[in-house]
Write a structure and sequence with these properties.
eight-stranded mixed β-sheet; Rossmann fold; 276 residues; elongated; alpha/beta
Length: 276
């Protein structure tokens, strides 16, 4: 499928402005993606400190202008409150607003049950590096979303990182396990590498500094290099050297690969369970 064409946006409605919703809003403002943004967020403490003339906040959907017809309504509330929150916006779905959800585990069918069978829906799984503009989001649309709708959703999530589209929604469980939960695996690697460095004799602060910088730098190298991850690994590994000694442990039969495989499968299974 070809990449969606860039689409101009007039009004974006953001439903929920927590950590991820706030990160999205910041990215949109930085890129000047829409003429105005209307944010529904009852917790005043979650609203960004930086006030923009392009952003209006309300604390409940009942306080929205009844004539409001946003191009896109972005659902950024917790999955467990969607059943209560979404029916308020059903009239917008009937009026042609595209709904883009970043709530984990909630399927297109689930959302259609709350917003109506004719609702144009996109389900997305972003990850936390979106908060610094380096996330990756995987998107899946229902049959009601046209090319313009895909372009709008693509533009909104491209503002905080890379975007990929899938046609089979069932893949979202594995996406969640790899990229959605993936940052936690990387942070755990930093923790473990730090502890191992301390046990090897390094001061705590130096061990953590080395672990953080090594993981961050290696990730950036992997991002910009045309070489595969395997080729990059081999380039660092001299026969009989220190890296080879460490990899003999990590690449053993019971090493990192089978451990990570079990972790991803466990997360995939749990994602399916949560989707119900």
């Amino acid at each position: 499928m070809s990449e969606p064409a860039p689409i101009a946006l007039s009004t974006v409605l953001l439903i929920g402005c927590g950590r991820m919703g706030g990160a999205l809003l910041s990215g949109w403002l930085e890129r000047d993606l829409a003429d105005r943004y209307v944010v529904v967020e009852p917790a005043a403490g979650l609203r960004p400190a930086t006030v923009s003339p392009h952003v209006a906040f309300v604390d409940a959907p009942e306080h929205l202008d009844p004539k409001l017809k946003p191009d896109v309504a972005v659902i950024a509330v917790k999955p467990q409150v969607m059943a209560e929150a979404l029916p308020h916006y059903r009239p917008m779905a009937k009026a042609g607003t595209l709904f883009l959800s970043i709530a984990a585990g909630r399927t297109l069918v689930f959302m259609a049950g709350l917003l109506g069978a004719d609702a144009a829906l996109v389900r997305a799984m972003p990850n936390t590096p979106a908060s610094i503009g380096h996330g990756i989001s995987v998107l899946c649309a229902n049959a009601k979303v046209d090319a313009a709708g895909r372009g709008r959703a693509d533009a909104l999530l491209s503002a905080v990182g890379q975007v990929a589209w899938i046609e089979d929604e069932a893949l979202m469980d594995a996406v969640t396990a790899v990229s959605g939960s993936g940052p936690a695996y990387v942070f755990l690697l930093i923790e473990c590498l730090t502890k191992a460095g301390v046990e090897a004799g390094l001061p705590d602060a130096l061990a953590e500094k080395l672990a953080r910088a090594t993981v961050a730098g290696s990730g950036e190298l992997a991002r910009v290099s045309p070489q595969s991850a395997g080729a990059l690994r081999e380039a660092v590994t001299s026969p009989g050297g220190t890296t080879r000694a460490a990899l003999d442990v990590l690449m053993a039969k019971n090493g990192l690969e089978p451990l990570l495989r079990r972790a991803v499968l466990a997360a995939t299974k749990r994602s399916k369970e949560l989707a119900g």
